[in-house]
Amino acid sequence: MYTTIFDCAESNVRSYCRHFPVTFSSASGAWMVDTDGRKYLDLLAGAGSLNYGHNNPLIVAPVIEYLNGSGIVQSLDLHTVAKAEFLQAFSDSILAPRGLTYKIQFTGPTGTNAVEAALKLARKITGRTNVVAFTNGYHGMSLGALALTSNPVKRAGAGVALTNVTFLPYDGYFGPSVDVCDYIEAMLTSPGSGIDRPAAVIVELVQGEGGLAAARMSWIERIAGLCREIGALLIVDDIQAGCGRTGSFFSFEGSAVQPDMVVLSKSLSGLGAPLSVVLIRPDLDIWSPGEHNGTFRGNNLAFVGATAAIRCYWTNGDFARSVQEHANVLTRELTAIADSTDGEASVVGRGLITGLSFRSVALADQISKRLFENGVIAETCGVHDHVVKLLPPLTISSTDLSFAIDTLREVVASTLGRPAQVDAA
Ligand code: PMP
């Protein structure tokens, strides 16, 4: 019914809506509803910005109460009660229990702006210009972040040279039998490699847009060691894999790595409102006041939502455990589905940022389309769009997760022309 206005009035740049061409009118928890009243299980989750589901009442209620009480909505970087409460909750319940002491920089509201800030700061600190990024990495669409992003279609949109970045192979880039660490070490440490000493190395522990490759902890630990050796700062981009996605608040938990900086965004506000931060090792916080400004650094509705999300889900380990339990179920079932495809599909990702990688690009696209026809929203990702990506809300119920798995199993089987293998477990 509304399609025409989008076709007529909205820029050609729109993309997700082309894959899921209905008009959505409401959403609650893991479900979205279109204008015809059809329900869809949302495994896109705002590309990772809706980890706690749509309109989670535990998060929305305090935000409504705040608005009704004449709470300040926008405050630049002025001190507000809402910001103070967020800083306190984040420090007490996220940083302190993990032995982390980061300073928190609020940037412009997008993830890409937080990446820009981290890049600027790393270059300022080290006096170096080059930055190392990894194959299939994605860090955003503004020029500095785009230079770190490997996707050729996105890069082509820049219109200028994307410079001062060296790409090195991500863990597993040449297959499981090639350990790229020796190569990376040689390229970063040997004077003959031709690579300028980098200000920073930026890395995602699960490549959210680039195909869901997940780095081994031993790999990231070795990269961190190399960074120390060559005086480069380690920036973990946890914009998509953070905020609980992998089963712990940060994706690097469980490794010995303490990044020099972490960029966070997407689900930080709890309700899908924009909020982005750079976490900075305290001794590295050498910004001059106002050096990375931005009007929308004071989104107080996002602060209130973020505080509520932390208080509801992160004051003890229960939520993380439930995410891990769901993730175990999903991985087990995805493995069974992949096993039924005669090597056509394999499981990628970690925690609840996971999916099936297909040898045939056309298959991934068909499966995403058929899932949608069957009431499940799941996008494709990867440089060839060959991965069906599953990002369930972390708060998803076991029943809804089973529905997602059953639908995927049937769709994969019917698309490949094989009977669905129902897992007896
Ligand atoms: N880094 C990562 C890992 C991301 O997944 C994204 C968004 N998909 C970004 C950076 C950029 O965030 P934004 O789209 O909010 O600018």
Brief description of this entry?
With 425 residues, this protein is an alpha/beta fold. It has 14 helices and 15 strands. The strands form three sheets. The protein has a seven-stranded mixed sheet. Strands 1-2-3-13 form a four-stranded mixed sheet.
The gross shape turns out to be: globular
Instruction: Note poorly predicted spans.
Output: none
Bound small molecules, which ones?
A: 4'-deoxy-4'-aminopyridoxal-5'-phosphate
The computed structural class is: alpha/beta
Strand count, sense and closure of the main sheet?
Answer: 7 strands, mixed
| Order of secondary-structure elements | HHEEEHHHEHEHHEHEHEEEHHEEHEEEH
* Cα-to-Cα separation, first versus last residue: 43 Å
Number of strands: 15
What is the alpha-carbon Rg in Å? 21 Å
* Fraction in beta strands: 5-15%
Strand order of the largest sheet: 4-10-9-8-7-5-6
- What count of helical segments does DSSP give? 14
Q: What is the chains' assembly state?
A: single chain
Q: Could you tell me the mean pLDDT?
A: 96
Helical percent range? Answer: 25-40%
